Amino acid sequence: MDSRPRLREGDKIMTSSLPAIIQKQVVVSVRVGRFLCFFLLGVLVISTAAGSAAGPDVKSLAAEVDAHYNHLQTLEAEFSESYRGAGMERTESGTLWLKKPGKMRWEYRSPREKLFVSNGKEAWIYVPEDRQARKEAAKKLEDVRSPLAFMLGKTKLEKELRGLSLALDVPPWQAGDTVLRGVPTGWADRVSEVVLEVSPEKRIVRVELDDVDGGATEFRFSGQKEDVAVAEGRFEFKPPAGVEVVDEGLE
Fold first, then answer.
1. Is residue 122 classed as helix, strand or coil in its secondary structure?
2. What's the pLDDT band for 150 if we cut at 50, 70, 90?
C-alpha cells in the first residue's frame, strides 16, 4: 500500500515535506488546472450563448417573409397604431385591408373614426368629426403607412431595409417570434430605423418606425386573413356632401 501523503486541492501543508522547487511546481499545477477548468467552462457558456443568440439566418428569413407576402393578393387584419413622441402618447385601432397593386384601406374606430384609403393612384384621409377630407397623390404621400409597402409584396425586405439584422435586444410582442431591424432606404430623412416582428408562420405582426426626431410609431396586426374577397369599391372614396375637400394635387 502506498503510504505517501496525497495532495488535496488547496492543501499546502501536505507539500511541506517536498523540496521547495517541487512545492512550487505542485502549487502552480493546481492553480493552472483550476484556471483551465474555469476557462473551459467559460468557453462552453460563451459558445452556448453565442449559438442561441445567432438565431435564424436573416437572409433566409427575409426571403421566406417575401415569399409569403408575394403570393398574396389581399390581406385583412385588425390593427393598433401607437405613437410616442413630443411629450405625448396616442393609441388608435381599427381594421386594415390591403390589395395588390398598392391598394390599402385603414378604418379607424377607436378612439374616434378616421379613414385612410388609397387606390394606388390617389389617397384620401377623412375625419368625419372634422368634416374635412384631404386628397393627395399616393406616390408622393408622406404618411407613416407608406413604408408598409412590403406587406403588399411590392418589394423585398433586404432591398427595403438596409443592414437588415436580428434585433436581439428588442423583446418580441409574442413568444416565439423573431425581431428584425434595418434602415429604410427610401425614408432615411424621416425614419432612422424600422423594427419588424415576424411570426413562425412568416407573417409580419408588428412594425415600429423610429423617427429621426425621436418619435416612434408602432403598428400591431392580429387576426390576419389572407386572400379574402375585397371589392374594388372599398379602395375608392367619395366625400360626403358638405365635407370640405383639401386637394393637394396629383402631379
1. strand
2. low
